[in-house]
Write a structure and sequence with these properties.
The structure is a single chain. By secondary structure, the protein is α+β, with helices and mostly antiparallel strands. It is built from 5 helices and 8 strands; from the N terminus they run βαααβββαββαββ. The protein has a 4-stranded antiparallel β-sheet with strand order 1-2-3-4. Strands 5, 6, 7 and 8 form a 4-stranded antiparallel β-sheet that branches. Strand 7 and strand 8 form a beta hairpin.
């Protein structure tokens, strides 16, 4: 994983990025209002202002290929593997494990998720596989049913 600098938001979104898979964001109400690039820019700015943002990369031959991102913030730990071909291969679990280690190193006591949509059981499984515990199931601000997890560090 490669940590992103606070001034890198414009560089993260480009035509060949892992974020090009719009289906990943299709459930986001704001994406329909703001547009995909604007929503992504706002998300990245938030992650960089309130936490740490990392690009998840894999080595293909002699080139590093960005396939996703993960952020470490006090109020959420979002992770995205953008392209279907790289999901369920262990990359997300490895990245999330590293972020948990980073939080411990920083002296954090707890990590929380801001909600995992119930139509995404693969994401729930990822978080639970590294030690997050389900603490609630409820509607989020947009009325979507979500699972909420925490992890004591």
């Amino acid at each position: 994983m490669r940590q992103q600098a606070k001034n890198c938001v414009g560089m993260l979104y480009h035509e060949d990025a892992w974020t090009k898979d719009y289906a990943v964001f299709v459930a986001e109400e704001e994406s329909r209002i703001l547009g995909f690039a604007e929503l992504l820019t706002r998300l990245y700015r938030y992650f960089l202002e309130y936490g740490e943002l990392y690009v998840i990369e894999i080595l293909l031959g002699d080139q590093w290929l960005p396939i996703g991102d993960v952020a470490l913030c006090p109020d959420t730990v979002p992770i995205l593997i953008g392209s279907e071909e790289y999901r369920s291969k262990g990359y997300g679990k490895r990245a999330l494990t590293l972020v948990v280690q980073r939080a411990r190193h920083l002296g954090w006591k707890k990590l929380i998720t801001c909600g995992i949509y119930t139509y995404n059981p693969r994401s729930r499984g990822l978080f639970e596989s590294v030690g997050f515990k389900l603490v609630d199931t409820r509607l989020d601000e947009e009325g979507q049913l979500c699972w909420f997890h925490e992890m004591e560090l």
